[in-house]
Design a protein that fits this description.
single chain, mainly alpha, 0% strand
């Protein structure tokens, strides 16, 4: 029972993060399942099964708030589904000994990207309302879907920053469109895992616990940015993913390091993580003071927060 309660809480917090950043539900939940010893493919399958419900709830919530660009959803969801199905069947064919460090390596890369992306640049918004081209969305969907299945998450960390960097959509519509299209990706990934794994290793109770937590959080996720600025939240999540998956790598058969070396690595990660969060908080407060002094939103991130 304690495990189910913790998983429900993790699903709730992960969905709050995902709803405000457009990413991190999958990587956060999968990281937790790996830490408690779940088979990598089963962990990803469990998370994607739960995501069918959480992404549906998130999509409805974003739609009701007007945060969805349906043209973008239509163009990115199908390629994402194809990539997710391919990634799920690929991961299902790997042995646990190989899959666990492979997944952790992908999650480390995603964690580093999230940490750097939000610490250094936060959320940007410029040249809005230009159409996002199919030749950009189709390969993005394929790649993000594949990474999402093999890493247990990645649709948001790949898709959200890419669409934000295009500068052609409001941040709230980027997040809403990515969250809504993820429903199709989660369904495709679940089908792929079912083909590759059947029901072996998938814990329905854990999936339901994650689902309940995520569904409860979905209606309020659009407002979380008012409490936790996206820049700060992104830095915090990126560091957490980096730290936990580094532990998995260091404890695997892939590497052999002494205790002093591993302690040093952990210490460096903690220091970098703390510095990144402190920098993000400082930058956010400076932007907010500047905006208050001028009476207008100085920072695009501040404007995005106001819109949500």
């Amino acid at each position: 029972m304690r495990t189910l309660v913790l998983l429900a809480l993790a699903g709730f917090l992960a969905q709050l993060v995902d709803g405000s950043l457009g990413m991190a539900y999958g990587v956060t939940s999968t990281t937790l399942l790996l830490l408690i010893g779940t088979n990598p493919a089963a962990a990803s399958a469990t998370v994607h099964l739960a995501e069918i419900g959480t992404t549906l709830a998130a999509g409805v919530s974003h739609w009701r708030l007007g945060n969805v660009d349906w043209k973008v959803v239509a163009r990115i969801a199908l390629p994402g589904a194809v990539g997710a199905f391919a990634g799920a069947t690929f991961l299902s064919g790997l042995s646990t000994e190989v899959a666990k460090p492979v997944m952790s390596a992908i999650l480390i890369a995603l964690g580093i990207y999230i940490l750097i992306r939000f610490t250094a640049w936060g959320i940007s918004s410029h040249s809005l309302h230009k159409p996002v081209r199919k030749r950009f969305l189709i390969p993005l969907g394929l790649f993000a879907g594949f990474v999402d299945s093999t890493g247990g998450g990645g649709w948001g960390p790949v898709g959200t920053p890419a669409l934000l960097a295009s500068g052609r959509m409001e941040p709230r519509k980027v997040i809403g469109s990515i969250d809504t299209s993820e429903f199709i990706v989660a369904v495709a990934a679940s089908v792929g895992f079912f083909v590759g794994l059947g029901s072996a290793g998938v814990n329905p109770g854990w999936a339901i616990a994650l689902l309940i937590g995520g569904v409860v959080a979905a209606p309020i996720a659009a407002w979380i940015v008012r409490i936790f600025p996206p820049r700060v939240l992104g830095s915090a999540v990126g560091g957490l993913i980096l730290l936990t998956n580094t532990r998995t790598i260091l404890n695997s058969d892939w590497v052999s390091v002494s205790s002093p070396v591993s302690t040093t690595i952990y210490a460096v990660i903690w220091l970098v993580w703390a510095a990144a969060v402190a920098w993000s908080v400082r930058t956010h407060l400076a932007d907010r003071r500047a905006a208050a002094a001028e009476g207008t939103p100085k920072s695009p991130e501040t404007a995005a927060a106001a819109e949500d």
